[in-house]
Amino acid sequence: MPRPKGKKEEKYNESERRNDGNTVYCQLDSNLGSATELMWTGNCGFLPVMGADGKIVGVVTDRDTCIALGTRNRFPGDVTVREMMSDRLFACSPDDEVHIALQRMQEGGVRRLPAIEKTERSQV
């Protein structure tokens, strides 16, 4: 199945898509259907999850979504990111050396690691 092309931007509300560069994110109350569509159209395997204060509080992966939907008898639009994401965030800084990022990934047992800028509002 080919990736959707030419989607109208207004389909996404501001809580689910932000353009500061190519950053795409979801919020805690985003549903898995919209998070999955953002990953699909953005050709990425994970999304940062933004809290109400604008800081990244976690990530949701394509694997998380698959497991969550495979173990619940619910529709993707009825499951929120908050319900299935881990509350532990492993991240690095964009300035970190590669070996630091690899060490954090190993410590957390994760395959994807957001590089988060330390600003007033988090940026990936």
CATH structural fold name? CBS-domain
Averaged pLDDT, please? 82
Q: Under the CATH scheme, which architecture would be assigned?
A: Roll
Distance between the termini: 29 Å
Low-confidence parts, pLDDT < 50 over ≥5 residues? 6-20
Number of strand elements: 3
Supply the CATH class: Alpha Beta
* Broad shape: globular
Description:
The structure is a single chain. The chain has 124 residues and is of the alpha+beta class. It has one domain (20-108): CBS-domain (Roll), CATH 3.10.580. It is built from four helices and three strands; from the N terminus they run βαββααα. Strands 1-2-3 form a three-stranded mixed beta sheet. Strand 1, helix 1 and strand 2 form a beta-alpha-beta unit. The longest helix has 11 residues, at 32-42. The two termini are 29 Å apart. The model is unreliable at 6-20 (pLDDT under 50).
